[in-house]
Design brief:
This protein is of the alpha+beta class and 71 residues long. It is built from 1 helix and 4 strands; from the N terminus they run αββββ. The strands form 2 sheets. A two-stranded antiparallel sheet has the order 1-4. Strand 2 and strand 3 form a beta hairpin.
Amino acid sequence: MKTLKLTLLTISAVFIIFCGFTGTTGILADTNQVTIENKIKPGPKYIWVAGHYKHNKYGKIVWVPGHWKRI
């Protein structure tokens, strides 16, 4: 009886490990895609600057999202 329980437990554990956890989890997110909902021009002297990479004051490259800039 003890051997039967151990065998069933082992077979079910192996089944769960190899067949129970399949597919992608979606943990990794694509951080480069940004959608802007509001593209209403805030004034006549504004232009839209698209998102881009820029060096900060420490020399590290950082992502600057799109924004309106007054000209």
